[in-house]
């Protein structure tokens, strides 16, 4: 029996209940398909089946997510068509050179698509496989390539415009509820994890469990990109989502930092009674999902008062308690601000000046990973085109076209082989249905109206699958097999030999792509994860280098984004893999500790600035060495002494708005880098030694 959640309770759901939203999406796609076929038949377009397939390839359940992709897809189609007309007639007498140029062009487009990571990537992706699927089937006879290209562009454009019009009228799904649901999921997960981390019976959760929260922040940004196309209050909503992302990005390191300090305190001594009482109240507030936001103010003031009193004493345990209190206060503030912003998403009204000033959430981009994806795609296309040309395979051009389509569709994934394997299975399962329609049902159909009514059950069923996130990867191969195998034309043709040849070409393209993918890409996931971690270490080295520009907000966003990318790849790492030793959250906390130290440099005397500079220089060298070696090496013991001397120097000064955050950052940095080190010996003027 299936289970759903409503109002925090688990409710049984029958597996046969139809979801109205998914059915609306499927019906919208069917109406778009009917309109597309009507136009294609009326205009005597040569390949109506190509237009029909484009309808379902481009349809997206989320209306706001679909519209920007439409614009980019149209641009990609025109770009791919222009490249086809440029290359094919000029290189028709040199098929090897033509294939090489098409493979290079496709690889370059995939490189740009993987690098971009926004809806704009669809422009490059569509430019890649539109040129491939237009060119390859006609390389043997390129004389009519201009007319062929124009026809393909017309068919795809008609389909995309029909889908756009239907989705604009029916609005299957909106991006705003999806954002609200994602934010509420993140906040609920963060509350539960933090309540456990702060509790007296703290148990460490798995790294993947904590890191998975970072993936929600990145996904939220991907959805937010679509908001300008979703509803009339979208500009205000998008700014709120940008501000919300920045708040959510701070929740992870703040909560983990507070838990880290409490761990250190519990290892050395019992928690002070006032801190125990504070933690109990904070945990009660976190456990209550309907908790009042007005209570946050009093909890934050208690945290700040405890922190100020502890820092005045200057003992190491007191500094740990103060650091824990401040991180709890900052976490509660960020959590409350996130809840307020989440409640305002999608509502009218002008955002505050602070929200208007929020910068876009910066995504991390890796040229190396993008280049590998582009190179693998170009190599795959070149390889199966070489086999086709050398063997003089009659259906090789169609196989190459299908293989290029599949390769480009999944090129952005680290290891596309499992998805392509499921693609093959879904294609095999759909062939009997296509044969039933082509040889049993369609011969008895007369007229356009009867054709649409006859196709409706199959297309509605596959469209419903497309709307289900758990089963949507099955939809594209099902549509491809069903539509291409039947080959909708203006006049019905039930050619068994053509049906078999088309099916074999499809299967050949899938099998060829699967084989090439396993050779080129299957061992890539862990390599990509390690590369992402290395990039983070390199940016930490730059962040600590006082000779480099100081852009803390951009660094935090990219670090959280990378944490989310690594989270999706940790599942394939074995238990003993060195990837597990690289604690992305610890790196994130250290990076956030570097920021207040750099901000304090211009607000301290020269001798203190020198000690803080020594800490930053040591961190820059440490993370540069990590980046150079590619391993999560332990910090050098020589870095502990500069941190202790910097602590001592700051404690000898009156604490102000710049020095106090730097002091707290040094405490956090020492806990993260040297968790098992003994308490520092701090000598304060007129006080003596304090341990």
TrEMBL record:
Keyword Nucleotide-binding included in the entry's annotation: no
The name this protein goes by in its record: FUSC family protein
Matching Pfam families: FUSC
InterPro entries cross-referenced by the UniProt entry: PHBA_efflux_AaeB/fusaric-R (IPR006726)
Superkingdom of the source species: Bacteria
Swiss-Prot/TrEMBL keywords: Cell membrane, Membrane, Transmembrane, Transmembrane helix, Transport
TM region positions: 23-43, 70-91, 97-114, 369-390, 424-442, 448-467, 474-492, 498-520
């Amino acid at each position: 029996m299936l289970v759903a959640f409503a109002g925090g309770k688990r409710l049984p759901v029958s597996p046969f209940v139809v979801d109205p939203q998914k059915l609306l999406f499927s019906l919208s796609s069917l109406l778009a398909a009917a309109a597309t076929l009507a136009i294609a038949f009326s205009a005597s377009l040569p390949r109506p089946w190509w237009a029909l397939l484009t309808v379902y390839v481009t349809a997206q359940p989320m209306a706001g997510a679909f519209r920007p992709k439409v614009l980019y897809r149209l641009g990609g189609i025109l770009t791919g068509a222009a490249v086809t007309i440029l290359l094919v007639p000029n290189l028709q007498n040199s098929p090897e050179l033509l294939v090489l140029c098409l493979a290079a062009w496709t690889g370059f487009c995939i490189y740009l698509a993987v690098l971009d990571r926004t809806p704009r990537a669809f422009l490059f992706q569509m430019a890649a496989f539109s040129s491939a699927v237009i060119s390859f089937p006609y390389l043997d006879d390129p004389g009519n390539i201009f007319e062929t290209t124009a026809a393909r562009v017309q068919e795809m454009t008609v389909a995309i415009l029909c889908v756009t019009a239907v989705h604009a009228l029916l609005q299957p799904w909106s991006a705003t509820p999806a954002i609200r649901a994602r934010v509420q999921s993140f906040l609920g997960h963060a509350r539960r994890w933090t309540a456990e981390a702060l509790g007296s019976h703290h148990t460490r959760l798995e790294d993947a469990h904590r890191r998975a929260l970072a993936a929600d922040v990145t996904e939220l940004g991907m959805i937010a990109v679509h908001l300008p196309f979703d509803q009339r209050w979208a500009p205000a909503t998008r700014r709120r989502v940008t501000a919300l992302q920045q708040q959510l990005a701070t929740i992870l390191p703040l909560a983990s930092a507070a838990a880290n300090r409490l761990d250190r305190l519990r290892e050395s001594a019992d928690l002070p009674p006032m801190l125990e009482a504070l933690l109990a109240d904070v945990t009660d507030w976190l456990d209550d999902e309907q908790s009042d936001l007005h209570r946050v103010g009093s909890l934050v003031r208690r945290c700040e008062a405890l922190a100020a009193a502890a820092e005045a004493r200057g003992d190491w345990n007191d500094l740990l308690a103060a650091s824990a209190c401040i991180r709890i206060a900052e976490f509660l503030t960020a959590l409350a601000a996130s809840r307020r912003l989440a409640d305002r998403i999608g509502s009218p009204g002008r955002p505050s000046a602070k929200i208007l000033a929020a910068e876009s959430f910066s995504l991390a981009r890796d040229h190396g990973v993008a280049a590998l994806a582009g190179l693998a795609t170009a190599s795959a296309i070149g390889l199966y085109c070489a086999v086709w040309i050398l063997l003089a395979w009659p259906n090789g051009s169609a196989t190459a076209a299908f293989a290029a389509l599949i390769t480009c569709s999944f090129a952005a994934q680290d290891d596309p082989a499992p998805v392509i394997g499921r693609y093959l299975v879904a294609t095999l399962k759909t062939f009997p249905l296509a044969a039933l329609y082509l040889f049993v049902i369609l011969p008895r159909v007369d007229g356009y109206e009867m054709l649409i009514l006859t196709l409706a059950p199959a297309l509605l069923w596959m469209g419903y699958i497309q709307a289900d996130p758990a089963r949507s990867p099955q939809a594209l191969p099902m549509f491809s097999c069903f539509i291409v195998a039947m080959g909708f034309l203006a006049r019905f043709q039930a050619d068994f030999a053509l049906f078999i040849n088309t099916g074999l070409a499809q299967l050949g393209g899938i099998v060829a792509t699967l084989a090439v993918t396993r050779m080129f890409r299957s061992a890539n996931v862990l390599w990509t994860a390690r590369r992402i971690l290395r990039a983070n270490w390199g940016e930490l080295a730059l962040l600590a280098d006082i000779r480099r520009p100081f852009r803390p907000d951009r660094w935090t966003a990219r670090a959280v984004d990378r944490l989310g990318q690594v989270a999706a790849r940790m599942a394939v790492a074995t238990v003993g893999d060195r990837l597990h030793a690289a604690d992305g959250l610890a790196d994130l906390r250290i990076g956030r500790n570097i920021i207040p130290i750099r901000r304090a440099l211009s607000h301290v005397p020269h001798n203190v600035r020198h000690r803080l500079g020594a800490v930053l220089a040591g961190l820059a060298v440490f993370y540069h060495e990590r980046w150079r070696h590619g391993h999560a090496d332990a910090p050098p013991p020589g870095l502990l002494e500069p941190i202790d001397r910097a602590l001592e120097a700051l404690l000898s000064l009156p604490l102000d708005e710049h020095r106090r955050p730097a002091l707290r950052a040094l405490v956090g940095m020492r806990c993260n880098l040297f968790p098992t080190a003994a308490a520092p010996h701090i000598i304060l003027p007129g006080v003596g030694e304090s341990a």
